[in-house]
Protein backbone atom coordinates (compact mmCIF):
# COMPACT_ATOMS: atom_id res chain seq x y z
CA UNK A 1 0.00 0.00 0.00
CA UNK A 2 0.97 3.62 -0.52
CA UNK A 3 2.34 5.63 2.42
CA UNK A 4 -0.32 7.73 4.15
CA UNK A 5 0.51 11.22 5.36
CA UNK A 6 -1.19 12.54 8.49
CA UNK A 7 -0.86 16.28 9.12
CA UNK A 8 0.12 17.38 12.62
CA UNK A 9 -2.41 20.21 12.45
CA UNK A 10 -5.18 17.60 12.11
CA UNK A 11 -3.96 15.53 15.05
CA UNK A 12 -4.90 15.88 18.72
CA UNK A 13 -2.74 18.60 20.23
CA UNK A 14 -1.96 18.89 23.93
CA UNK A 15 -0.25 22.18 24.82
CA UNK A 16 0.60 23.42 21.38
CA UNK A 17 -0.73 25.63 18.60
CA UNK A 18 -1.10 25.35 14.84
CA UNK A 19 1.01 27.95 13.06
CA UNK A 20 2.12 28.67 9.48
CA UNK A 21 4.72 31.39 9.93
CA UNK A 22 7.69 29.29 8.81
CA UNK A 23 7.99 28.05 5.23
CA UNK A 24 8.17 24.54 3.88
CA UNK A 25 5.33 22.80 5.70
CA UNK A 26 2.72 20.61 4.03
CA UNK A 27 -0.98 21.14 4.55
CA UNK A 28 -2.21 24.21 6.43
CA UNK A 29 0.70 24.55 8.81
CA UNK A 30 2.53 22.80 11.57
CA UNK A 31 2.26 22.32 15.32
CA UNK A 32 4.34 24.54 17.56
CA UNK A 33 4.58 22.57 20.81
CA UNK A 34 4.47 24.72 23.91
CA UNK A 35 7.90 25.08 25.47
CA UNK A 36 7.05 22.69 28.28
CA UNK A 37 7.49 19.09 29.36
CA UNK A 38 4.46 17.10 28.29
CA UNK A 39 3.44 19.12 25.25
CA UNK A 40 2.26 16.53 22.76
CA UNK A 41 0.74 15.58 19.44
CA UNK A 42 -1.28 12.39 19.05
CA UNK A 43 -1.98 11.01 15.60
CA UNK A 44 -4.67 8.44 14.88
CA UNK A 45 -3.40 6.23 12.10
CA UNK A 46 -4.84 3.24 10.33
CA UNK A 47 -3.09 0.00 9.55
CA UNK A 48 -4.56 -2.52 7.14
CA UNK A 49 -2.82 -5.38 8.88
CA UNK A 50 -1.08 -5.90 12.20
CA UNK A 51 2.71 -5.78 12.26
CA UNK A 52 5.68 -3.50 11.76
CA UNK A 53 5.18 -0.15 10.07
CA UNK A 54 7.59 2.59 9.11
CA UNK A 55 6.75 5.93 10.66
CA UNK A 56 8.38 9.13 9.44
CA UNK A 57 8.02 12.29 11.50
CA UNK A 58 8.77 15.56 9.67
CA UNK A 59 9.96 18.33 11.96
CA UNK A 60 11.97 21.54 12.26
CA UNK A 61 14.04 22.73 15.18
CA UNK A 62 15.54 26.16 14.65
CA UNK A 63 17.59 25.98 17.80
CA UNK A 64 20.88 24.21 18.43
CA UNK A 65 19.42 22.25 21.33
CA UNK A 66 18.00 18.76 20.93
CA UNK A 67 14.25 18.55 21.65
CA UNK A 68 13.75 14.91 22.64
CA UNK A 69 10.34 13.31 22.73
CA UNK A 70 8.90 10.03 23.91
CA UNK A 71 7.03 8.16 21.21
CA UNK A 72 4.20 5.91 22.30
CA UNK A 73 2.02 3.56 20.33
CA UNK A 74 -1.38 2.71 21.76
CA UNK A 75 -0.24 3.86 25.19
CA UNK A 76 3.12 2.11 25.35
CA UNK A 77 6.35 4.08 25.02
CA UNK A 78 8.29 2.52 22.16
CA UNK A 79 11.03 5.13 21.91
CA UNK A 80 12.21 7.05 24.95
CA UNK A 81 13.82 10.44 24.46
CA UNK A 82 14.03 10.16 20.69
CA UNK A 83 16.30 12.98 19.53
CA UNK A 84 15.06 15.86 17.40
CA UNK A 85 18.26 17.79 16.84
CA UNK A 86 18.52 21.29 15.43
CA UNK A 87 17.74 21.55 11.71
CA UNK A 88 19.52 24.88 11.16
CA UNK A 89 16.48 27.15 11.18
CA UNK A 90 12.70 26.95 11.52
CA UNK A 91 12.19 26.77 7.72
CA UNK A 92 14.35 23.67 7.35
CA UNK A 93 12.52 20.39 7.83
CA UNK A 94 14.05 17.00 8.41
CA UNK A 95 12.64 13.58 9.08
CA UNK A 96 13.03 11.03 11.80
CA UNK A 97 12.14 7.45 10.96
CA UNK A 98 11.25 4.63 13.27
CA UNK A 99 9.70 1.21 12.97
CA UNK A 100 6.77 0.45 15.23
CA UNK A 101 4.34 -2.39 15.63
CA UNK A 102 0.74 -1.49 14.84
CA UNK A 103 -2.48 -3.35 15.34
CA UNK A 104 -4.91 -3.82 12.49
CA UNK A 105 -7.27 -0.85 12.31
CA UNK A 106 -6.93 2.31 14.37
CA UNK A 107 -3.74 3.13 16.28
CA UNK A 108 -2.66 6.09 18.41
CA UNK A 109 0.87 7.37 17.92
CA UNK A 110 1.80 10.09 20.41
CA UNK A 111 4.93 12.22 20.56
CA UNK A 112 5.49 13.87 23.93
CA UNK A 113 8.16 16.45 24.75
CA UNK A 114 10.42 15.49 27.63
CA UNK A 115 12.22 18.76 28.26
CA UNK A 116 11.16 22.29 29.18
CA UNK A 117 11.93 23.39 25.62
CA UNK A 118 8.97 21.34 24.38
CA UNK A 119 9.01 19.51 21.08
CA UNK A 120 10.26 20.64 17.71
CA UNK A 121 7.78 22.10 15.24
CA UNK A 122 5.93 19.10 13.80
CA UNK A 123 4.68 19.01 10.21
CA UNK A 124 3.45 15.50 9.57
CA UNK A 125 3.63 11.80 10.27
CA UNK A 126 3.79 9.38 7.34
CA UNK A 127 2.99 5.71 7.83
CA UNK A 128 3.87 2.93 5.42
C1 LIG B 1 10.13 30.39 17.79
C2 LIG B 1 9.58 29.86 16.47
C3 LIG B 1 8.49 28.84 16.73
C4 LIG B 1 9.01 27.76 17.64
C5 LIG B 1 9.51 28.39 18.94
C6 LIG B 1 10.09 27.37 19.91
O1 LIG B 1 9.15 31.16 18.43
O2 LIG B 1 9.06 30.92 15.70
O3 LIG B 1 8.02 28.29 15.50
O4 LIG B 1 8.03 26.81 17.91
O5 LIG B 1 10.52 29.34 18.65
O6 LIG B 1 11.17 27.61 20.43
O7 LIG B 1 9.49 26.34 20.16
TrEMBL record:
**What residues does the CBM6 domain cover?**
4-128
May I ask which residue range the UniProt record assigns to the signal sequence?
none
Which family would the database say this protein is a member of?
Answer: Belongs to the glycosyl hydrolase 2 family.
Q: What name is this protein filed under?
A: Carbohydrate-binding protein
**What is the species of this protein?**
Kribbella koreensis
Amino acid sequence: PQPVLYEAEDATITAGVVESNHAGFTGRGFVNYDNAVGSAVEWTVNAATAGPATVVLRYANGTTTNRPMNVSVNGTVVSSGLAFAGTGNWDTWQTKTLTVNLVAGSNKIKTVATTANGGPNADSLTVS
